[in-house]
Amino acid sequence: MTASTTRRTTAARSRIAAVGAIAVAGTLLLTGCGDQTKDNDSGGSTTTESAPLADQLPKAIRDAGVIKVGSDIAYAPVEFKDSSGKTVGIDPDLAAAMGKQLGVRFDFQNGTFDTLITGLRSKRYDIAMSAMTDTKDRQEGIDSETGKKVGEGVDFVDYFTAGVSIYTKKGNDQGIKSWSDLCGKKIAVQRGTVSEDLAKAETKKCTGGKKITIEAYDNDQQAQTRVRAGGANAGSSDFPVAAYAVKTSGGGNDFQIVGEQVEAAPYGIAVAKNNTELRDALKAALDAIIKNGEYKKIIDKWGVQDGAVQEATINGGK
After folding, report:
1. Which are the contacts of 218, defined by CB distance < 8 A and separation ≥ 6?
2. Within a 10 A sphere around the Cβ of 136, how many other Cβ atoms?
3. Quick one: CA torsion of 219, 174, 250, 111, rounded to 10 degrees?
C-alpha cells in the first residue's frame, strides 16, 4: 500500500481549506459497513433512449449498458450502505444522474480503497469513484512518499472539492486544535488516506520524544469506533465525512470537529490513461447535469453545497 493510492496526497500543508461548514441533513441514515460484493441498485438507465450523450461512450460500454465502478462503500456521506444494504450517497446519486445522460447504469462494486487504482489498471473496473483526490502524483503514477514510479497513472474528471478535518470525542478535545497538538497523542485514521500522510509528516516534526501514535484501519468506520471507545485521542477524515459523523453518530453526541480543515483539493473520477473516450464522455455528462440543475439538487440534498464546482475539470489536481 502506497501513498499514491490515498484519497488525497499531502502537499502544501500550509494551505488551509476554505470549503466551509457542512450542514448535514438530520434525516440522513447512519452509515453501514460495506462488503466486497457488487451493488446492482445504483446507477441510471440501462438503455440509450432519451440519453443525449450515449454516442460519446466507447462502443463496448455503450453495448454493455453498464460502467463498472470501483468504490470503497464505507465513507458516508460520499458513498455508503443504507439500512437496507443499498449503496447511497453523493457519488451514487451523481452517477445515477450521469447515467441518464449517457444511457448506462453505473454498477458500484465495493473494495478497499487502497486497491481501487490497481483494480482500474487490471480492468476490473472501468472507473474509480470514491472520494478520490486528484493529484499530480496519481496522474503520473508516482508514489508521493518515495517519488518512484509505481504505475501508469490515471486521468481524473473532477467534480467536487473537500478538505481534511480532525475530530475528537464531544466535549473532550484534550487540547487538540491543530495537527501539531497531536504530538504525544494517538490518532485513528483510514489506511492509505491523506489523514495518515499528514500524521506521518507531523510526527517527524514533534520534539521532546513526543511522537504521534498512528493507528491505521481498513475503513473510516473502524477509526471512528476506536475514537468513540476512547482508544484514540482523535480521528481524522475528509471534512464531509467528519461532519457527517459529528451530525449522526450517537445522535450527534459522540464527536466534535476541532480546528480548521486543511488540504482543500478536488475529488476526481479516475479513468485509465488510455481511455480518453470514456473520460471525455464522463466530463460531458457531469457538465450536462451541472447545467440542467441535477448536480445542484444532489449537492443540496446531502448538505455539501460548499464543495460544489461550477464545471467538470480534467486533471485539475496539483
Report:
1. 112, 190, 191
2. 14
3. 0
* Res 37: pLDDT: 41
Number of Cβ within 10 Å of residue 275's Cβ equals 19
Count how many Cα atoms sit within 13 Å of the Cα of residue 49 in the half-sphere of its side chain. 3
Q: Please name the fold of domain 163-263.
A: D-Maltodextrin-Binding Protein; domain 2 (3.40.190)
From CA 260, how far away is CA 258, in angstroms rounded?
A: 7
| ∠ CA 45-49-53, rounded to 5° | 80
Query: Distance of CA 135 to CAs 127, 285, 318, Å?
Result: 16, 22, 5
CA 220/CA 282 separation, integer angstroms: 28
Rounded to the nearest angstrom, the gap between the alpha carbon of residue 261 and the centroid of all alpha carbons in its chain is 15
The structural domains of the chain, with segments of one domain joined by +, span: 3-162+266-308, 163-263
pLDDT at 109: 97
Does this chain's domain 3-162+266-308 share its CATH topology with 163-263? Answer: yes
- With residue 163 as reference, give the H or E element that holds it: strand 154-169
Burial class of residue 162 (count of CB atoms within 10 Å of its CB; 0-12, 13-18, 19+): buried
Q: Which three cell numbers stand for residue 84?
A: 437496507
Cell 464543495 identifies what position? 307
CATH domain 3-162+266-308 topology = D-Maltodextrin-Binding Protein; domain 2 (3.40.190)
Q: Tell me the pLDDT of the chain averaged across its residues.
A: 86
Asked if residue 169 lies in contact with residue 244, where contact means CB atoms within 8 angstroms, the answer is no
> What whole-number distance in Å separates Cα of residue 300 and Cα of residue 306?
10
A 10 A CB-CB count for 314 gives 17
Tens digits of per-residue pLDDT, 84-134? 999 999 999 999 999 999 999 999 999 988 899 999 999 999 999 999 989
Pairing of the two strands 80-81 and 87-88: antiparallel
